[in-house]
Design brief:
182 residues; 29% helix
């Protein structure tokens, strides 16, 4: 069953590839030079046939590691800034890859962001978490967490899939002017 993980873009133990070069994805050729495992390079070429990969990573703290272990292909990850969802992506696969993390992100904040998830191209926008959405989402994101099963189940019962919730419930398929507003 699809699960939903939520991270705050405001914390220093989580990194995304949604800014600068990462928003367009990281080139597979560059990524392949940073990966020690050759079989990983082949798997990446298979899931990213257009040659651009989208990466999310967390530092290997005890709490982050426990949550990352629960993440599976087909789960969703939502990025939150303040009280708004700013990104949503489906996880394609995950890999612990300290070399890749060190090459992609500046590790000044401490340990590399080696708990990696490879995602489909993220949908980005700004969907305010309104009180009317409390059935699906909590107002405060925290740093990194798994959405409660009850809230995920509400998304599934009302929208039939997490993907539909992201596109329709958050309005990521609509022009910015028609999205939720405060």
């Amino acid at each position: 069953m699809e699960n939903v993980f939520i991270f705050s873009s405001d914390v220093e133990t989580i990194k995304t590839g949604y800014s600068d070069e990462g928003q367009k994805g990281h080139g597979i050729e560059r990524v392949s030079t940073l990966v020690e495992e050759r079989d990983l390079v082949e798997r990446l070429r298979n899931i990213y046939p257009l040659g651009r990969c989208f990466i999310w990573g967390a530092q290997e703290t005890e709490d982050n590691y426990l949550l990352w272990r629960e993440m599976e292909a087909e789960d969703f990850i939502l990025g939150v800034r303040g009280r708004s969802i700013i990104s949503a992506a489906r996880i394609l696969m995950k890999q612990k890859a300290p070399g890749l993390a060190a090459g992609v992100w500046d590790s000044e904040a401490g340990a590399p962001f080696s708990l990696i998830c490879f995602m489909d191209e993220p949908l980005t926008g700004e969907a305010a978490i309104e009180p009317s959405m409390s059935r699906y989402l909590d107002a405060g994101a925290g740093e990194f967490k798994k959405l409660a099963a009850e809230k995920r189940d509400c998304m599934l019962s009302d929208y039939a899939s997490i993907s539909n919730f992201v596109r329709l419930g958050l309005g990521f398929d609509f022009p910015f002017s028609l999205r939720h507003s405060e």
